[in-house]
Design brief:
Blueprint lengths: L1 E7 L4 H4 L13 H16 L6 E4 L3 H14 L6 E2 L16 H8 L1 H9 L36 H16 L8 E5 L1 H11 L4 H6 L8 E5 L5 E6 L4
Parallel strand pairs: 1-4, 2-3, 2-4
Antiparallel strand pairs: 1-5, 5-6
Helix pairs in contact: 2-3, 4-5, 6-7
Length: 229
Amino acid sequence: MSFLILVRHGQSTWNLEKRFTGWVDVELTKKGESEAEKAGLLIKKKNIQINFYYSSLQLRANNTLKIIQKVLKDKKIFFRAWQLNERHYGSLTGLNKIEISKKIGEDKVHEFRRSWDIKPEALNKESPYHPINIKTYENLPIEVIPNTESLKDTYKRVIKYFEEEIKNKLRDNNILISAHGNSIRALCKKLFDLDNKQISNLEIPTGNPLLIELNTNLKIIKCEYLDKE
């Protein structure tokens, strides 16, 4: 038996401003820091020894994890992987969700946000929001840096990493992943065998740990969000 804990980062500055963030590397708000601390306290109550920690390359997920580890008094080095990054929102990156909804319609924005294989137009490489112009990604091979992504694209990279780097460790270790709404949705699609319609409707709350108990064959025994509120 083992445990997998999935935590979407706490509220970020661009979450607060209702902007499409994607690969732009923004910080947590004070509320986001509080959410991360609460997540740590909820995990601590379960008295589960975490063997491995994983996160994306992005500050909001990394700092959420650091706050959780501080609460747990656990100084283990965590693995950082670009494959666990948030979905790249292409030309929508940086735009206000409410304003763009008024401009192109709520249905179109919902389609971009929640459809399985539809992606926004590519983000111009001259944009300061393009990953090639963001210091966080300066050491990434250019061929792995996207210009835009669908959820399907995000799923492919997240699950490939999960299968290659995390799955076997999970058979006899407890693992915590601090990541993003869409990278966690991708993991949930795989773990819970969700179809494309189900995954389109799945919402992932910020800062609320999803505790998943698995047997030795990695079949789910039970799962629960730790913040019942």
